[in-house]
From TrEMBL:
Superkingdom of the source species: Eukaryota
The species this protein was found in: Cyprinus carpio (Common carp)
Stored InterPro entries: Galaxin-like, Galaxin_dom
Keyword field contains Oxidoreductase: no
Name of the protein described by the UniProt record: Galaxin-like isoform X2
Keywords: Signal
Record bears the keyword Signal: yes
Signal peptide (from-to): 1-22
Galaxin-like repeats domain boundaries: 50-166, 200-327
Designated gene of the protein: LOC109108687
Pfam families: Galaxin_repeat (PF24748)
Amino acid sequence: MESYTPTAFVVTILYIFATSSAQGICHHDRGSHKAGFSGQMEGSNHLHHCGNVSYNISESSCCNGYITPGLSQLVADCCGSVAYNPLNEICCKGNILTQSSTHVKCCGKDMYVTTTHLCCGGNNIFQRKEDHSCCGKETYDMTTHCCCTNLTLEVKPKNETCCPKATGSNLNPILTAKKKEFQLGSPPTRTLPKTSELKCRTMPFNPQENICCLGNLYKKASALTKCCGVDAYTLSDDNVLCCNGILHLNVPEQSECVGGVIYTPANTTCQMSIRPRLGEHCCGGQTFNPRTHICCNGHSHSKMNGNFCCGSEVYDHHNQFLRCCSGHLYNLTHLSGKAECCGNLLLQYNNNQTCCSSSTNSIIYQTKPNHHCCGHYYYNTSLWSCCAERLKPTPKPNCLPAEYRLKPLTDLIPEMCNKTVFLGKVESVALENDQRHIVLKVVWQVNVKSEKDIKDPWLHVSLDHCNSPATDNGKTYLWEEKHNGKYKLLSHPVDLTSDIYMLYSVCYQKKG
């Protein structure tokens, strides 16, 4: 078995990091600024414009020129000029209502549960009965009556001449009635933007009415419509599972996607510009001396001010009052109480806020009772349950949320330098009962108490599946070895070409 040493690995990584950073073309910074609610900006932290005001879409939303603070546009929808969370609320003709179920729609200004009630005439709600459907503003029994279309819609006995005869197009009156009910149902009221700069391939589209999935355009069924590869689906859909960008229909309710494999309760099947002169180094549109300066996103800084970049700024990682949050540098001297990073934002413990994060987004919410995080979503436990960062429209009273959230590797430094941690690449994942079994390849071990070689880089780890964050095959994460022989997942996927240098230099400088 091949032996790995921390020093040899770091030298290799630093070489990759250096060669990938030393590009031979000077270029200028490029920024992206879009106005209004685009609906396709997941992962974006740039400032956008709402009317004449700039705002951050990670912490606020823009609806019809008005800003709603405290709710990220990445998870919000508009109800007139106010943003709301469609995961737990619904907008009915300008009224924001708290959902009582994941299967709700609007009936005029009111909300109704589609599995137990009918909406007739756009604003009349009736108890759902077997073989009953809508006829104008009332319901009727399809086995004994029909809905006649004269000047108005009227319920008549089936022997009336106005009743349609059984043809190939209406052999199934129940399906026909359900189709009519869907057409008569009142969708959530949204105010549409006047123009749209977004395109799905070459076709312009309105993100509040449509969604673009890898070049395919779909009509939004609701604000909970999401992409799964080239297909679209709704989070509240039953028996639907998005697994590694492939949408699967009619799957059993307890099915899980783990490592690209769909596990079901019964059985499992595997699926498998300007060029510089010779000798000059570029930093944006200027040249710089790499011996005395550091280049951060096209901006040159003296190394006397620090050796690490935070976005376009440089900082000294020994300064305990400076905190870098995903490229945004914060000075903690003016804050009262403790704070930590939530994506590119700073979360203060005394502000009654909660940070929900996934590998793609980190979003701050106002803390609410009976709400928990599921990845970067903040859900009502009476409506949803969460398993491995996947929402399910089936609330489970005994379903415990994850006890902690994953963080970027840089947010864990230097607290984890005194712990026995290592970088492990997920090679294979299997699900058995409620346990997720993972085969890890140990890439590098960070143990400041010893520098022992890793004799066998293969490690078998078991996690509680639902209460642990999701893991992807081929991705490398930071793990902690606990005293009881178990392992804890700590970080989001690690970028070995950028994060590893800070990990090595900070921890080993601290050791020295």
